[in-house]
Amino acid sequence: MSSSEPAGPEEHTPGRGAQTHLATDAIAYLLAGPFTFGGIGFGVDHLLGTWFVLPLGVLAGMALSIYLLWLRYGTP
Amino acid sequence: MSATMTAAGTLLPMAGEESHFPPTPADFWQPLFPMFSLGETTYYFTRPMALILISFIVLTVWLLVSTRRASVVPSKGQWFTERVYDFVRNDIARDMIGSRDFLRFTPLLFALFTFILLNNWFGIIPPFQNPTMARVAFPIALTLIVYVVYHWIGVQKHGLGGYFRFMIPPGLPSWLVPFIFLLELMTFFITRPLTLALRLFGNMFAGHMLLVVFIIGGWELLVHGGALSLVALPAWIMGAGLTVFEALIQFLQAYVFVLLAASYFGGALADEH
After folding, report:
1. Among candidates B265, B148, B253, B147, which has minimal Cα distance to B200?
2. Does B192 reside within a domain?
3. Tens of pLDDT, residue by residue, chain A (76 residues)
4. Among candidates A4, A13, A32 on the partner chain, residue whose Cβ is nearest the Cβ of B191
5. Checking CA distances to A51, which of B40, B96, B113, B177 falls within 20 to 30 Å?
6. Rounded distance between C-alpha atoms, residue B106 and residue B256, angstroms
7. Between chains, do B94 and A65 touch, taking CB under 8 Å as contact?
């Protein structure tokens, strides 16, 4: 990548965006899980004529979201 | 769409009596004059559109005037502009994107920050008093710019396949990878831009609604309240206090929008794990 900063003794400091350890972005992850797997559950319910896959999907999605947050933000 | 576009009648809530209390989302639809018609639909030039044009002119004039005779020893105006620019450059762009790549994103982030901040503050500056971002189309348009940029630079840096591989965080058990991949895909492509746009919209919309409740509500109490008309004073004191609070929120939301945009850029440019 090009850089128009004058070449100096300073070393490259990586941005904190790389780890995206921003609490404000957590909501995007928390929404993604239930919506994705709830949506899949809704589709499965629609196809099979059942009712219980949607709530299972929402719960599994929540669990995955929280796991992913822990993995991204909580581990050293 | 055509119903709300043509229905100037939504401005008149109750039959006979002209009342704006309690405020409704329809109060945010403020057409100034019709522009053109396409089929059944008439398109209006609205108050937020006027405000966004004013903000564009104000920002352009401010930046041109304060930097035209830029010197090493800055004048007061140039000093202020440099403070704002340094804030975006150092505390947002360099912090989030890293010292290698941040410079080429600084103009975009600076433009976004000043643009959103002024438009938010229009919510409490008389005679504008309408936050442009309380109409959801404006935050969506700004989010689209950010959305295109962070996917573009991500694909540019990692390649198309590499970009998708890069989304999966390291240290996953292999049977979880497809699920997490789906989740990350959803986050990157849908919920991130959704939350980015709706956070700004929702804060501006609700904040403005709150101010309207206290200030118009105080007026309604004074005029129609009878014995309750004394309560108008505390309502207005509350309104004034919340206006100050709202100024802070409006700054904070402009800051958060740009901070998150920068963190998405930084995330897309990060080296492989």
Report:
1. B253
2. yes
3. 444 444 444 567 777 765 655 566 788 888 999 999 999 999 999 999 999 999 999 999 999 999 988 887 776 6
4. A32
5. B177
6. 15
7. no
Out of A19, A24, A36, the one facing B183 most closely (by C-beta) is A36
Compute the nearest-CA separation of A64 from chain B (Å).
7
User: Which residue type sits at B220?
Assistant: E
> What's the gap in Å between the CA of B14 and the closest CA on chain A?
38
Interchain proximity A14–B184, CB inside 8 Å = no
Give the span between the Cα atoms of A65 and A30, in whole angstroms.
5
DSSP B92: I
Count how many domains chain A has: 1
Full residue range of the structural domain in which residue A52 is found: 25-74
Q: Look at residue A54 and tell me if it is in a domain.
A: yes
In a domain, B119, yes or no: yes
- Tell me which residue range forms the domain holding B82: 20-269
Q: A36 in a domain, yes or no? A: yes
In a domain, A4, yes or no: no
Across the interface, of A3, A17, A27, the residue whose CB is closest to B265 is A17
Chain A hits for B107, CB-CB cut-off 8 Å, are none
Element of type H or E holding B149: helix B137-158
> Would you say residue A68 lies in a domain?
yes
- For residue range B222-232, what is the model confidence (pLDDT) as tens digits? 888 788 888 88
